[in-house]
Amino acid sequence: MAQCSTELDDVFLALADPTRRAVIRQLGHGPASVGDLAGNAAMTLPSFLKHVRMLESCGLIRTEKSGRVRVCELDRERFTVVEDWLAEQRRLWEESTDRLERFVTRRTEKRKP
User: Fold this and answer.
1) How many CB atoms within 10 Å of residue 23?
2) In what residue span(s) does the HTH arsR-type domain sit (predicted)?
3) Mind listing the pLDDT tens digit for each residue in 35-66?
4) Range scoring the smallest mean pLDDT among 11-20, 25-34, 91-100
């Protein structure tokens, strides 16, 4: 459980930054070079590379160097950590609202003559 929590924390930390979310959004359309991705960011290449390294270290993207070009690609499997957590949260909230609905329904039925 602690490992899953750390992985989830790392992913959410990476996604907390708008630059990194923009990279993820772009890579959702397919692989792209670091140069192409950086061209849309209003920062220096060394600063942008820090974002790429963070996304790579938490497993959201993979990079591969081919000659002088580094190409980035989404690791879609990594998003299952977030999907699983969201599914669990959804289940908990639905159970809670179902209990509330049963409670309100019972109270309303008791009041009817």
Assistant:
1) 27
2) 1-94
3) 999 998 889 999 999 999 999 999 999 999 98
4) 91-100
Domain total of the chain: 1
Which residue reads 């990476």 in tokens? 14
Which two tokens mark 33? Answer: 């070079």
Structure tokens at 69: 């070009």
- Is the model more confident about 11 or about 109? 11
CA-to-CA distance for 49 and 52, rounded, in angstroms? 5
CA distance 99 to 43: 50
Angle 8-13-23 (CA atoms, 0-180°, nearest 5)? 110
State the Cα–Cα distance between residues 53 and 57, nearest whole angstrom.
6
Tokens of 23: 């990279």
